[in-house]
Amino acid sequence: MANPKVARTSGATNGLTAPAPPSNSRVVSLPAAREKFRDFLTRKGLRVTNQRLAIFETAYAQKEHFTAEQLLDHARKVDDSVSRATVYRTLPIMTESALLREVDIGSGEKFYLPINEGGTQVAQVVCVDCDRIFEISAPFMEWYGSTVSSKLGLTPVSQRLQVSAHCNTWRNTGACPRRG
Questions:
Q1: What pLDDT, in 10s, does the model give residues 64-112?
Q2: Can you tell me the distance from the alpha carbon of 125 to that of 25, in angstroms, rounded to the nearest whole number?
Q3: With contact defined as beta carbons under 8 Å apart, do 135 and 8 qualify?
Q4: What is the pLDDT of residue 177?
């Protein structure tokens, strides 16, 4: 999957549209996310550098899933001193700080997407025919993760739900309007 496309849906839809986030979610503003990133770096004893800020700004400007290499290309347009190593070290920091969601679809390459909705659990549906990653609101995941973990005397740290699927339109007609 060279460059997946993302479609965000808020419920049980066919995935062809991308409605607004659910009404119970909070959209995180760019200034608030920037401050959260700065605070997280400081708490971890890491320096707030121009390169890290350029990576943050570039990552938060992305509307679709992106890879580390794609982020590097875009970040160098903001600050040409951004190094590959700094991108690869900053992505886990942004993921740990809950500013980016990491998506591993088993292709050997990880994809990232800014978390713009506070506290909203999502599931990914990866179309193996259309090269798309659909994000579906999945509020049941928090309850499920807490319930099964507590039965074992554990506290959940992270969880994910990912489904790989074939495109019915592609399979039936050989053409798909979403295929890029």
A1: 889 999 999 999 999 999 999 999 999 999 999 989 988 877 777 888 9
A2: 21
A3: yes
A4: 73
- Helix ranges (H only) for the chain are 30-43, 50-61, 68-78, 84-96, 140-151, 168-173
Q: What is the mean pLDDT of residues 3-30?
A: 42
Pairing verdict, β 132-137 and 5-9: parallel
For residue 78, give the amino acid letter: V
- Domain spans in the chain, listed from the N-terminal domain onward: 5-13+29-172
Sign of the C-alpha dihedral computed for residues 145, 90, 110 and 16 taken in this order: positive
CA dist 126 and 107 (Å) reads 11
Which residues sit opposite 27 in a β-bridge?
117
- 20 is written with which tokens? 């607004």
12-23 pLDDT, tens digit each: 333 323 333 333
Q: What is the pTM of this model?
A: 0.65
Residue 3 pLDDT > 70, yes or no? no
Length of the chain, in residues: 180
**CB neighbours (10 Å) of residue 87?**
24
Instruction: Sort strands 5-9 and 162-165 into parallel, antiparallel or unpaired.
Output: unpaired
CATH of domain 5-13+29-172: 1.10.10.10
